[in-house]
Each structure stands twice: as structure tokens, then as C-alpha cells.
Amino acid sequence: MNVNTLEILLGKRWILKSREKELYYRMKDEIGTVKRFLTEKLGYQVIVNPYLIKIEKIPAEPENWMGILDFKDVLDYAFLCYVLMFLEDKELEEQFVLSELTEYVQGQCRDRAVDWTIYQHRQSLIRVLKFCVQCGIVKVTDGAESDFARDYTSEVLYENTGASRYFMKSFTRDIMAYESPEDFKKEEWIDVDEEKGIVRRQRVYRSLLMSVGMDRTDQTEADFDYIRKYRNMVEGELAELFDCELQIHKTSAFLILGENCQLGRCFPEENTLSDIALLCFGLIREEIEKGEILVPADEKIRISREKWERILEDCKQRYSSGWIKSYREMTTKEFLRAVTEYLEELEFIRIEENQVFFHKAVGKLEGRYPEDFTGGNKK
Predict the structure, then answer these.
(1) Domain boundary among 58, 76, 97
(2) How far apart are CA 248 and CA 266, in angstroms?
(3) How far is CA 152 from CA 86, 122, 123, 147, 149, in A?
């Protein structure tokens, strides 16, 4: 399948010439056909230089799944910032050893003592370095991070690729005075004319393309009004670019991608957890149809954590014979945790004070096995 230009650009962090030379030149030739959409409708900065092509993909609202999923601790993000700072003084293709980096990081951490004899601190840095290697910020020339996990005196030789300087977004003003995430959100719209509706338009297109869906709330009423008023224009423009369908309801709107669309991470994914999630959503629909779960006027469904866990247990009891071994043999506690964390990551559910709140997208998703299901092939 020939994935279109926009799907590639929006689905990748960046395209490094050193790694994907053929794709780099293809995108460089084709980016002019979609640049206007990226800049006018999404408000995204397009970076094209001799080393890489990157679209600064800023969401309308930050969400859980937009983080670096391999990171486990706030310290991981702090270490990543220190690595990027360290690389600022390195030339393209300049090599350095791990001990140079660890000394630099240790010297920068003034608010929290870093001790490389502590295994958790080493593991945190290893996660960051593996991420940096994976996305092309640095290359391993000799050695392995796993050696550092066993012995903090072990060395690894790295090479700077030069990509690190393009990892962070470029800000139009000094951010040292910023005190909250809200300050960064305001920064995104500083130079955009609110009066002409540009901010609203860009928020709408970002929400449709980068989020599970748009939820109608007091805060998003103006955006929701825009999408209803200009529905035909928005739907027509997006349908020309992607295999998709715009669906608008009373309190929500969704961009449903077709089978021929490969726009980044989509649900359902090709894994057992996605299958389990769909089956759980089917059981929730059953509960709604029986009147066991009530749908309020604002369509924001919530149930107790206890009821949620009963639904998951019922799902495992009914369908686990059709799953791979690792999920079949999970204890109830392990299963509850795995499914709940997955759905929280995708923001299909939110848990607050023993209440489980469901995203409205859950009402559009359902999976069932055939009535004669016995654990064989699934439909």
C-alpha cells in the first residue's frame, strides 16, 4: 500500500536523511503539496533541512498517550533534558563516552541527588539512552547500555548525530518564567489572530487528527460550534487527504479512519489488548441495554471501580480461551491491572476516587465473538 505524504509526516517523529535516505528525498519532493494544509489548518511548523524533515506536531490538548511510553519516572524526562543539553556542545558526528555524560548529568541535578551506584538511577538513564538511540539522536559506536546496568563504571562509546537540536520545539520567547503547563499552551497561540477564528480552526483540526475525538464541554463549545457550522467543508477537505469519515453527534465528534488510512497510532491495534478492550466495550453496551448502566443527558458514563472490575472479570471468564497464553494465564489482579492501564493510557477511561469515567468513543466501539465461539478463530 502506498501511504500518502501526510500520513507519513504526521505518523513519524521525523525523517532522518541518514536513516531513511530514499524516504527523505521523496518527502522533500512531495511536502509542497501538503504544506499549506499543515501550516494553515493545523498551524504546524514545517522543518526541512539537509539532515531531516520534521513537522512540529503540537496537540490541541495534551493526552496520556502522547508521552514517551517507555519512560517510567519523572526522572527519565529530567535525564532526557540533560542529555539534550549535553549534546548542544557536541559537533555533528562527535564521539563521547558514557562517563562524560554521567558526570555532566550528576553536576546538573541540583534539586535531586543522583548516585550512579543506585540501580534505579542507572536504569532511568538507560531508558533515556535507549530512546535516544531508537529515535536517532545518538548512535552506539562501541559497548552496550546493559553493561552500565550491571556496573556503573562500564563505558559505552556514542556518536552525536546532530538531530538533538531539532528534538525540542523552538519557542518564540523566553520560557524560564513559565510556571505551569498552561503557560506553554498559551505560548502556542501567541502569534495567531484569535479574531479571525484561526485559533479555533487549528484547534478543531488538531483535535480531530490527534485525539480520540472531540468532546462538547463548556470549554469547547466554540470549537464544537465551528465543526457543526463548517461540517461539509471540514469533512470534504479531510476526505480528500485521508480515507476517513467525519461523524458528529450531539455531544461529540469523531474522525473515523478507514482501512486504507495509516495515520500514526490507531485503535484497534493489532494486539490482544485491543481485542480485550473491544470485548469489554461490548459487555458495557450489554449493561446499558439491560439498564444496569445509565447514560446521563451529557452522555458522560461513569461506574464504580468495583463494577468495572466485575465487567473485566466477566470478560476474562467468557472469552479468555480465545486469547494468547500470557493473557489466559494471568491472575485476576494482573489482568485487571493490564487492561485498566492500557485503557487509561489511550484515555478511553479515567479513574478518580474509585469512579471509572468513560470516553464517549467507547460507545462507538464494540467487539464480539460469534455465538458458537469455543476458543477457536475469532471474527
Answers:
(1) 58
(2) 19
(3) 19, 7, 10, 8, 7
Q: How far apart are CA 344 and CA 305, in angstroms?
A: 13
C-alpha cell at 247: 461523524
Do 285 and 356 reside in the same domain of the chain? yes
- Find the angle CA(96)-CA(99)-CA(105) to the nearest 5 degrees: 100
Q: What is the residue whose three cell numbers read 479571525?
A: 196
Cα separation values, 363 from 194, 277, 284, 293, Å: 34, 12, 9, 12
CA distances 173 to 46, 163, 183, 199, Å, are 19, 22, 12, 19
Distance of CA 48 to the CA centre of its chain: 23
**What is the model's pTM?**
0.83
H or E segment to which residue 332 belongs: helix 332-345
Q: What is the DSSP letter of 73?
A: S
For 42, the grid coordinates are 493545523
Residues 147 and 70 in one domain: yes
Amino acid at 173: R
**Residue 348, Cα to own-chain centre: how many angstroms?**
13
CA 283 to chain centre: 27
Q: Which domain holds residue 287?
A: 272-364
Q: Is 374 among the domain residues?
A: no
pLDDT tens string for the chain (379 positions)? 345 899 999 989 999 999 999 999 999 999 999 999 999 999 999 999 999 999 999 888 887 778 888 899 999 999 999 999 999 999 999 999 999 999 999 999 877 889 999 999 999 999 999 999 999 999 999 988 888 988 989 999 999 999 999 999 887 778 888 888 788 877 776 655 655 588 889 999 999 998 888 888 888 898 999 999 999 999 999 999 988 999 999 989 999 888 877 777 778 888 999 999 999 999 999 999 999 998 888 888 999 999 999 999 999 999 998 899 999 999 999 999 999 999 998 889 999 988 999 998 898 888 888 777 655 444 3
At position 284, the amino acid (one-letter code) is I
Q: Quick one: 85 and 109 in the same domain?
A: yes
What residues are paired with 6 via a beta bridge?
Answer: none
287 and 254 assigned to the same domain: no
